[in-house]
Amino acid sequence: MSLLELSGVTRSVVLPDDRTLEILRGIDLTVDAGEHVSIVGRSGTGKSTLLNILGLLDAPTSGEYVLDGVPIGRLSGRARARRRGTDFGFVFQQFNLLQGRTALENVVAPLLYARGRQFWQRRTLAAEMLERVGLGDRLDTRPEKLSGGEQQRVAIARALVRVPRVILADEPTGALDVDTGSEVMDLLDTIARENGSALIAITHDLAVASRAARQFRLAEGVLTPIAISARSAGSLGALGAPGGQPSGPGADPGAAGHPAESGDDQAEHVARPLVPAHGAAPGEGDAA
Ligand SMILES: Nc1ncnc2c1ncn2[C@@H]1O[C@H](COP(=O)(O)OP(=O)(O)O)[C@@H](O)[C@H]1O
Ligand SMILES: [Mg+2]
């Protein structure tokens, strides 16, 4: 049984002029325990809306979401809130840390809603988690005194301290420079793996997306499996020109290997539909 299963999930909103905006149009997605999945897409295609539904922050307009065998539509508001706290850890582009509180207090915060050992030993658990993200010597530092990469590491510690089954990361490297973003993703991948948490990462960055075992593109509310090769994701030549060659005299050598700066258009070139050779999507690899 899959950990998460979305079938035919739609989300629409009624705009002030009474038009209906269909943000998600029939999403099918299954994610197994411990699996790493990435979703790429242009701005405004519904990525955050999808992540909010997955994390029980929002509900589908139609379709079904089954979490660990339980159709979430049948849960009470209170039960959904409890599962949100126990099953999910969130990492956001803008870190969303509590300013004016120390790193330790930020990581302790989710444990205030926990029970048993997680509650009683919250300061020890939070300190251990900050140690794991390399911030053992910054427990008493406030976020505004930390660099962006360090703040995101605090946010990762906060997301993981309750050992969630799923980490939902919405553009986790979007506010970081390329090297820092890469370090942060290494950390997120590693700790998720050690904890056995599934990781669903939304990103513009093909290098980030290519780390995941399965990759999808969200376009106009429709989710499609794709394959991004790590090689094409890592070189601007491939990003700038579909043929994999540098884009001529206009090519910016300074941007090589910085796919985060290359925007969505290149994603369209490199992120091609899944081909059977990659065998990444169950059921699609049998065709050849
Ligand atoms: N509650 C809402 N009311 C009206 N429009 C919304 C609402 N939520 C999202 N949208 C619109 O739906 C589209 C998708 O939003 P979002 O999921 O944030 O996209 P992404 O994260 O891919 O940039 C955007 O055009 C956004 O303005
Ligand atoms: Mg978004």
Automatic annotation (TrEMBL):
InterPro entries noted in UniProt: AAA+_ATPase (IPR003593), ABC_transporter-like_ATP-bd (IPR003439), ABC_transporter-like_CS (IPR017871), ABC_transpr_LolD-like (IPR015854), MacB-like_ATP-bd (IPR017911), P-loop_NTPase (IPR027417)
Annotated keywords: ATP-binding, Nucleotide-binding, Transport
Record carries keyword Transport: yes
SMART domains for the chain: AAA
Positions of the UniProt region annotated as Disordered: 238-288
GO cellular component, one term: membrane protein complex
Gene3D superfamilies: P-loop containing nucleotide triphosphate hydrolases
Low complexity biased stretches: 248-260
Protein name as annotated: ATP-binding cassette domain-containing protein
Source organism of the structure: Cellulosimicrobium composti
